[in-house]
Hints:
With about 600 residues, the protein is α+β, with helices and mostly antiparallel strands. It is about 35% helix and about 25% strand. The chain is built from 17 helices and 23 strands. It has a seven-stranded mixed β-sheet. A six-stranded mixed β-sheet has the order 18-19-20-21-22-23, with helices on both faces. A hairpin with a 2-residue loop joins strand 18 and strand 19 (about 445-450). The longest helix has 24 residues, at about 410-435. The protein is globular, with a radius of gyration of 27 Å. Keywords: Acyltransferase, Transferase. GO terms for molecular function: acyltransferase activity. This is GNAT family N-acetyltransferase. It comes from Nocardioides imazamoxiresistens. InterPro entries: Acyl_CoA_acyltransferase, CAT-like_dom_sf, GNAT_dom.
Amino acid sequence: MRLTNVAHLRLPFGRLWGYDVVVGDRGAALPVSFDQGRHVRAGDRPGSWMALSFRLPGPVDRGHLATAWLAVVARHGTLRSVFSPGVDGDPVLHEVAVAPGAWVEHPVGPGQAVNDALRDVLDAACGPYQRPSHRLCVLETADGPTVVVGADHAHVDMWSMLVVARDLLAALAAVEAGTPPPTVPAAPFAEHTRALADRPLAPTDVRRRWTEVLEASGDVMPCFPMPLGDVAAPQRERVEVRDVLDVDAAAAIGIQARELGVSTLALVVSAMTEVTRDLAGGPLRAVFPVHSRTPTPDSGATWHDSVGWFITNSVLESTDPDPAACAAAVKEAVRLGSWPLADVLAPWGGMPAAPGMFAVSWLDLRRLPVRVDATGLEAQYVGAAIRTDGVMLWFVLDESGLHLRCRYPDTAEARRNVGGWLDALVARLRAEARASVGGRLRLGGRTYRVERAARADVPALVALLADDEISRPREGAELAHYEAAYDAVARDPAHLLAVVREEGGDGAVVGTFQLTVLPGLSRSGATRLQVEGVRVATGHRADGLGTAMLEWAHAHGVARGARLAQLTTDRERDRAQAFYARLGYTDSHVGMKRPL
């Protein structure tokens, strides 16, 4: 899922609608979490929200969409609560009833971009003290509707936005089928806040580590380790969105992490630690948001399907780029954020934020128990546009790879220093992926590397394909035909045309195969891995390279959800059939081909 910013969000032109619900009088008081209080105390302001956008596959009746949205609001208590200023300046939170309302069209002014109109709507509707502080919008276009759900951060986090999208789509499907939408209440965030408040206070060692990290940062939360220019007052923001690793490189990094017994996050922290040491001459220190959705011992409640701000700010200190040390640093950061922070931060009068604060957020969508078809829905996390005096870095890891979004003050020094730091980080992660064990095959004293084929490899691949008596008559077209075929394969992410090189020497291509991931409905919706064009150079056929290549291919398929591998081979290839049989393939089906 792509991370983007409302200023960068590309939307087709159309009519922009927002749904006005009717909010009743304040009801029972609800507890306010530490982070909610800190956020809401700053008051209504532009850009305190987050949003999720996604496209629906076809036209939608706005009445159906409103009914589905009301079912989502009924399911999640935090969407039926509002903040108001207390007599002492601290915000108070109350339950409210939410009743059906009406759709309102938000005009898009002459010359105004649609995303700017959307930004105005969300800035106005999703402030901390708005009633309610969330907004359902739909953009009706010739290409179909795009739904945008925005909410003030006091009520949601990024995980919550996935829950909202999933529940909205389920409710809409039910409404369109003529059945009542599901409204079974999820565990409310207010209950989570009460449970956290009842937890024991932090032990001495946790308080000591907080003190050490904050003192090392100048008695404030960690700041970006290089100059940002004049940020005494918030500046216009600059937002960079980068696709750091594609699916192959992300898989290679993941395999490397498993080989080392750490997480992918630990390897990313290792890269950040090394870059910070090289460019700033010091350790990596950052604010590190951690989630608190783990079950509470007392209630036993689980929060995976709940909506709320289940995030609190911890601190991460990493002084050693060794992956094991970075894994320990991440583990410590999670522990430091697992205690009531109001008490921990009381000596500083609360969270001691300062200009230049540096925060790093990590979300691995592949591991979340809440899933939506982000690719099919063209779903995007949408950040607000604000003025800022700090550096905020978000990582999202999903089936398409590793992505980041970074927001920082748009000053000359910040462009140079933050931009340079990001350049170095991305370059290091890509180099790590290229050098990782994920793309290596080790056989005796030889090491081979599996890579996505480049266009310059096409002549070598053609030579491999033609290197036997059966294939030779089928090959021999002009190179341009093969290059056009390569372009078609390379454009489609479902295909991997791989080359295998022997490390060292001239890096000559000694093997190839093509893998295709095929989703399907049969076999209970099983995804298949199609294996084609397996070839090994003559001088390497007796050392087990073919077996290693197929094992690598199977791991590639498993990592992408495949439950079955399939291939075809010519009836005359007796040795090839015996080879595949040794690897567990059976001739259970009859393969048939027809020229077209």
